[in-house]
Amino acid sequence: MRDAWPEFGTDAIQLEQEFGRLIEFGTDVVHPNGGAAYLGADGTPDFERPVYTWITARMVHVYAIAAMRGHATAGIASGALAGLTGALRDDEHGGWFTAVDRDGDPVSDGVKSCYDHAFVLLAASTATLAGVPGARELLAQARTVFAERFLDGDRCVDQWNRDWTVLDDYRGMNSTMHAVEALLATGDVDDASLWHDRALAVASRAAREASAQEWRMPEHFDADWNALLDFNADKPSDPFKPYGATIGHGLEWSRLLLNVEATVGTARAPGFLNAARALFDRAVADGWNVDGAEGFVYTTDWAGVPVVTARMHWVVAEAIAASATLARRTGEARYADLYRLWWDYAQQYVIDDVLGSWHHELDATNLPAAGTWPGKPDIYHAVQATLIPRLPLTPGIAKAVAESALGDRDHRPA
What pairs with residue 38 in β-bridges? Predict the structure, then answer.
């Protein structure tokens, strides 16, 4: 399963060119106080907004990868990382704030979320492989905090207060999903099987939860891990906790299950391929071209009826990644055909050839919108969509790039 998917030919050149264009878009992302700024539609940093941990960590991840690909972005990765070792870190109680304001003060009462900490773990892992100064120390801290505060057997808790004395009753599958990505990535750094084993346990639990809902992944749970299927029914467009089944997460989980399977071996992940297929097929059936126009809807109810019909850029990015991963894993032409269909859709509607990057949101007619995501805050999903189709199922993106899995960089723009 580590063999590359059959050669793309001109597709590989196209993907590498888009990778370079995305990297160029965010080169002004470093905030003067450290960390990554929220980017506007044209890539201009918005210093009026807080500095977010999740954006900062994602930008460390992508710019460290770019540096390993030969781009002159090590300084960007280092500048963003300074936010994670500086203002965003809680030196008093440990861990990382959700965000800090322009004066460096924590927002949201200094809460500590699994979602943010998963991305810190991912960023530190990638930056360590890239040799970014301070990354190794950050990785050690992130591993300790994540293991002690957020891992709970084969599940992840979601949110603590600032001093770790109060654990919120909510449990979320979004943060759990990104925890699996981060656990795989940190295990790749030094071949630490413990972290890969943890990813396997969490992914196995998630697959069972999806199976119980006809492969529509439940997103929200109470403290006893009872699914809250009506959670946020009054806020269906929430950017992080929307009501219903999230189409993009079904696709993303599909890919991650195959990454876990490839990492630990099929014998230890029985049924993961079938689960990946089922998640993928359910997301495509419920989400693609279901409301009279091309594109994936954002969410559906538990019968598969569309709820939010806006098209989010990250959903098609994950569709591209999942279809390519399934094509490599199975060798089946239908997945390769879907990959090309969705890449063509992204080129036609989502990729912004005028201002750069990808439109983060389109309306139901595929025109740019900003109901949920104003601006273009980061490039994480889009960048990964240009890399995953060209990489093996394991190791993860950063380790594969570090091991030159993309070859000799002949396609990298000058």
Answer: 46
The answer to whether 358 and 315 are in contact (CB under 8 A) is no
DSSP conformational letter for 390? G
pTM of the model: 0.96
- The answer to whether the beta carbons of residues 253 and 210 sit under 8 Å apart is yes
Architecture of domain 10-402 in CATH? Alpha/alpha barrel (1.50)
Q: What does the radius of gyration of the chain's CA atoms come to, in whole angstroms? A: 19
pLDDT at 343 over 80: yes
Q: Pick the closest to residue 55 from 81, 73, 37, 32 (CA basis).
A: 37
Sort residue 127 into left (φ over 0), alpha (ψ -120 to 50) or beta: alpha
Catalytic residues: 249, 381
Domain layout of the chain by residue ranges: 10-402
C-beta of residue 48 within 8 angstroms of C-beta of residue 102: yes
CA–CA dist 334, 319 (Å, integer): 13
Residues 46-72: tens digit of each pLDDT:
999 999 999 999 999 999 999 999 999
Output the six-digit token pair for 340: 């090309």
Question: Which residue is it, tokens 């654990």?
Answer: 167
Who contacts 408 (Cβ-Cβ below 8 Å, separation ≥6)? Answer: none
Strands (E) in 179-267, as ranges, are 220-221, 245-246
- DSSP tag of 378: -
Phi, psi of 15 (to 5 degrees): -65, -40
* Cα separation, 277 vs 258, whole angstroms: 10
pLDDT category, 4, cuts 50, 70, 90? very low
pLDDT at 12: 87
Report whether pLDDT(189) > 60: yes
DSSP string of 399-412?
A: HHHHTTTT-S-TTS
C-alpha distances out from residue 91 to 36, 282, 375, 400, Å: 19, 44, 31, 33
Residue 27 main-chain phi, psi, to 5 deg: -70, -15
Residues 6+ apart with CB under 8 A from 318: 248, 251, 252, 255, 381, 385
Q: What is the largest CA-CA distance in the chain?
A: 55
Coil, strand or helix: which one is 264?
helix
Structure tokens at 324: 């390519």
